[in-house]
Amino acid sequence: MNRFIPVLALLAAFVSVGCSQKEAAETEAESGPAALETTEQRLSYGIAYGGGERLKADRVALDLDGFSAGLRHAFDGEE
Fold this sequence. Notes:
The protein is mainly α and 79 residues long. The protein is 72% helix and 0% strand. The chain contains four helices and no strands. The protein has helices at 5-17, 20-31, 39-57, 64-76. α1 crosses α3 (39-57). The longest helix is centred in the middle third of the chain and has 19 residues, at 39-57. 10% of the residues are buried.
């Protein structure tokens, strides 16, 4: 059960992102070093940014390299 808590926290973070996705992506696209040129890039950034803000606010300790590797493997269908 304890291993599902971070997954549930992440899911809650993504659900709570809502409308802030677009604002965060536009802010980064205007001022940040990453060029967010496509809608998919901006949406992806907005989801990650909002989820990251929520996880940080909930004080969920994460290794970002491990987190991103796990997320990439999940999308690639790997274990």
